[in-house]
C-alpha cells in the first residue's frame, strides 16, 4: 500500500504501537509535547538529522537498520555526556514513492533500538517530503550534575582513550558504494560475503551504553568525552578546542580491526585515514587523569591512544618513527558528514 | 560566499554567536547534548521538522521569516501544553546552492524568535543536504505537573475556545502561490500590497505565549488544549479522540478576520473551509469547564465556538440554519501538511 492511500493519522496510529513505556520519568507521550518528570538530576537533550542521499543511500541500506542507526546515533550523543538515555522523539519525512511497508520497517528498527537501549518513544511526527526520506531523532537523558562529562574538561597530561575500533563504518560504506557502482554498470549481484564486521559497523552500529557501566563499576569519571561521528581527527580537535589544550596521538595505538585493515588493503585505501576521517563509528573518545592509570591499565574495553598537552604544543599525530603530523579536521564535504 | 567555501565548523561558529543565555535552567549548550537543570517541575519536549517544497517555498518566503516561523512553531507546541518554553535545539540541512548569507539570514530569524520568546538555543547542528533546506527545531518547556493541559482532558459540556482568527495563514499562502504562478507565466511583479495581515500570519506567525499570562492572571486552567497546526477540523478531532468525546462547533462563531473574508471573496474561496482545513495558524484551541463561563465571559483574547458532547453524539459543525455537518479531518495531502 502506498503511503498516500492510508492517510497520515491512520499510519501514525499504526506506527505508534508496540513501543513499551520503560522509563518512570516518562509522564506523557504523543501529545503536543512529551512530558518528562524531573528529579534532583539534570536532563540532557540532543538531536540528530539524517537526510537521504547525504547520510544514507536506500539502495543498500535496509530501512529497518536505518531506523535503528538513527536512534543509536542520538543515544550515542547522550552516552557521550556520561548520561543515561531515557526518551526519544522522532520526526520522519517521506515522499510518496514510499510504501507503508517501508515506513513500518523503519519503525521496526526504531522499536528494536528502543528495546535495546531501554528507552521510550515519546513523540512521533510524520510529514510528507518532496524528494526523499528525512529522519530526525531527539534523545533525552538524565544524569547527576557531577557525573556529566563535557568536551571542555580535558587537562594537560590526561590520557586519551577510545572505546573500540575506528574506520570500520567508513570502510563498510566504501564496500557498499563499490558494489553499488558495479551493480549499476553491469548488474552484477553485490558481493557482500566476508565483510560482516565492517558492514555491521556501518549499517547497524551500536551506541556504547555498555561503557557507562564500565565507568561506574570501576569508579572512573572521564575528564572529557565525546563520540566519534565526524572521525577521530575532527572529534579530538573539538575536545582540544573546548578544553583549550593540545594533544599527541600515537598512530600505532589507534585501534583498527583486522577486518578493516584487510578491506583497506583490498581497496588500496589507507586504514589510518579511514580511522581519522571516516566517522560514524559511534565509539566514545574520552580523556582520563593520568593518576587513574594504575586503576585502568588492566581493564579491557578501551585503548589509550595518546595524551593531552598544553594548547601551545598543538594537536599532532606521532608516527611509529617518531615524526609529528598536524591533525586536520575534515571539511564540509565529508562523505558521512 | 558559498557554504562549501567556509566549512561546516567555521560556519557553525559564526551562526552560534549572538544567542544570549536567558534561562537559568540552561546549564550547558553546544556540547554533544544540551544540559538542562531540573527542579520540582516537569519538562516538556517537542520537535517540528520543516522541509523545503512541502512546508515552505523559498521563492516567496524570506529566509529570515522562515527561521522565526520554525521556532514559533515548536514554541507553540510547548505553549499548547500550558508550559513555558525555555530552550530550543536546531538542526539545519542546506544544499550547496545556498550562500552563507542565506544561512545567516535564517539564524537572524531564529535569534529574533529566541529574543521574542525569551528562550535559549542550546544545540545547533548543520548538515549538507542533497536537494534543499530542512529545518528541525526541538523545544523544551517547563511547568508544574498540575498546570499542564493535555489533549485528553476535555469533558462533556466544556466550552470550546480559540485564541484568535483562523484561515489567515492559509489564505496568505494562497495569495503567495497565485502571485508566484503569475510571475512564472509572464514575469509580472507580484502584487502583495494590501495583504499585510494574511501575509504576516503566513510568513511570520506568532506562538501565543501571551495567552499563558491571560490564563494565569484570571486563574483559568483549560481542561484540554492544543494548537492549530493541521486546521481546526483535524485539531478538534484530536482533542475529541484523546478525550473520548464528541463536539458541536457553531460555524458563525469561528473567528475569521475581515482581511481573510475579503481575500476569500476575491479568490472565490470558502472562508470557513480555510479556517477548518487551513492550518499553520498556531492559535490555541482549548476547552474550559462551563462553570467558568461567568469568570471568562468579559475577557477578550479568545472566542467560544462550541461545546464538548458525549462521544456517542459525534463531532459536528452547526450551520447558522441549524443543520449539522460531520467534521472531517484533512488527509495526508494537506497543502500545509
Label this structure with key terms.
homodimer, 337 residues, alpha+beta, 60s Ribosomal Protein L30, Chain: A, Phosphoribosyl-aminoimidazole Synthetase, Chain A, domain 2, seven-stranded mixed β-sheet, four-stranded mixed β-sheet, 13 strands, 34% helix, globular, disordered C terminus
Description:
- Two copies of one chain form a homodimer.
- Chain A has 337 residues and is an alpha+beta fold.
- The first copy, chain A, folds into two domains: 6-147, PurM-like, N-terminal domain (60s Ribosomal Protein L30, Chain: A, 2-Layer Sandwich), CATH 3.30.1330; 151-326, Alpha-Beta Complex (Phosphoribosyl-aminoimidazole Synthetase, Chain A, domain 2), CATH 3.90.650.10.
- Chain A has helices at 3-6, 8-15, 63-79, 100-117, 168-186, 196-203, 209-217, 232-243, 258-266, 271-277, 293-296; strands spanning 26-28, 34-37, 42-51, 84-94, 120-128, 134-143, 159-162, 224-227, 245-250, 284-288, 303-310, 315-318, 324-326.
- In chain A, the strands form three sheets. Chain A has a seven-stranded mixed sheet with strand order 8-10-7-11-9-12-13, sandwiched between helices.
- In chain A, strand 12 and strand 13 form a beta hairpin.
- Mean pLDDT of chain A is 89; it is low at 331-337.
- At the A-B interface, helix 1, helix 2, strand 2, strand 3 and strand 4 of A face helix 1, strand 2, strand 3, strand 4 and strand 5 of B.
Amino acid at each position: 500500500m502506498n503511503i498516500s492511500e492510508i492517510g497520515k493519522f491512520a499510519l501514525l496510529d499504526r506506527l505508534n504501537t508496540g513501543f513499551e513505556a520503560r522509563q518512570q520519568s516518562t509522564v506523557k507521550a504523543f501529545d503536543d509535547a512529551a512530558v518528562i518528570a524531573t528529579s534532583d538530576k539534570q536532563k540532557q537533550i540532543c538531536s540528530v538529522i539524517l537526510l537521504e542521499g547525504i547520510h544514507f543511500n536506500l539502495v543498500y541500506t535496509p530501512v529497518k537498520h536505518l531506523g535503528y542507526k538513527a536512534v543509536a546515533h542520538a543515544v550515542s550523543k547522550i552516552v557521550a555526556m556520561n548520561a543515561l538515555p531515557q526518551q526519544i522523539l522522532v520526526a520522519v519525512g517521506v515522499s510518496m514513492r514510499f510504501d507503508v511497508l517501508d515506513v513500518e520497517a523503519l519503525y521496526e528498527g526504531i522499536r528494536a533500538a528502543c528495546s535495546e537501549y531501554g528507552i521510550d518513544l515519546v513523540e512521533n511526527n510524520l510529514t510528507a517530503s518532496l524528494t526523499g526520506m528525512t529522519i530526525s531523532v531527539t534523545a533525552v537523558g538524565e544524569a547527576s550534575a557531577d557525573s556529566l562529562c563535557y568536551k571542555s574538561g580535558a587537562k594537560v597530561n590526561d590520557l586519551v582513550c577510545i572505546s573500540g575500533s575506528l574506520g570500520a563504518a567508513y570502510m563498510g560504506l566504501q564496500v557498499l558504494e563499490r558494489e553499488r557502482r558495479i551493480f549499476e554498470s553491469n548488474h552484477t549481484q553485490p558481493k557482500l560475503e566476508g565483510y560482516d564486521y565492517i558492514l555491521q559497523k556501518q549499517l547497524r552500529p551500536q551506541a556504547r551504553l555498555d561503557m557507562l557501566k564500565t565507568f561506574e563499576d570501576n569508579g572512573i569519571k572521564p575528564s572529557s568525552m565525546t563520540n566519534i561521528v565526524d572521525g577521530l581527527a575532527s572529534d579530538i580537535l573539538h575536545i582540544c578546542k573546548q578544553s583549550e589544550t593540545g594533544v599527541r596521538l600515537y598512530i600505532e595505538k589507534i585501534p583498527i580491526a583486522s577486518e578493516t585493515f584487510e578491506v583497506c588493503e583490498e581497496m588500496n585505501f589507507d586504514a589510518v585515514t579511514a580511522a581519522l576521517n571516516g566517522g560514524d563509528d559511534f565509539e566514545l573518545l574520552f580523556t582520563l587523569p593520568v593518576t587513574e592509570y594504575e586503576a585502568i591499565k588492566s581493564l579491557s574495553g578501551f585503548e589509550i591512544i595518546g595524551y593531552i598537552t598544553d594548547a601551545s604544543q598543538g594537536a599532532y599525530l606521532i608516527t611509529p618513527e617518531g615524526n609529528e603530523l598536524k591533525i586536520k579536521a575534515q571539511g564540509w564535504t565529508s562523505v558521512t558528514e
